[in-house]
Design brief:
rod-shaped, about 45 residues, mainly alpha
């Protein structure tokens, strides 16, 4: 674990940013997948 000056709060912030990025990326992948599936079913 990386030592961060200031205690616990910066760790919470970093984890929150990671979780937010993961949700955004996951949502983008899911949206892309659903669009591709719709294109396949439309043919």
């Amino acid at each position: 674990m990386i030592e961060i000056e200031g205690g616990f709060l910066p760790i919470v912030a970093v984890v929150g940013i990671w979780a937010f990025q993961g949700a955004v990326i996951g949502g983008a992948i899911a949206a892309y997948g659903s669009i591709r599936a719709a294109e396949m079913s439309a043919r």
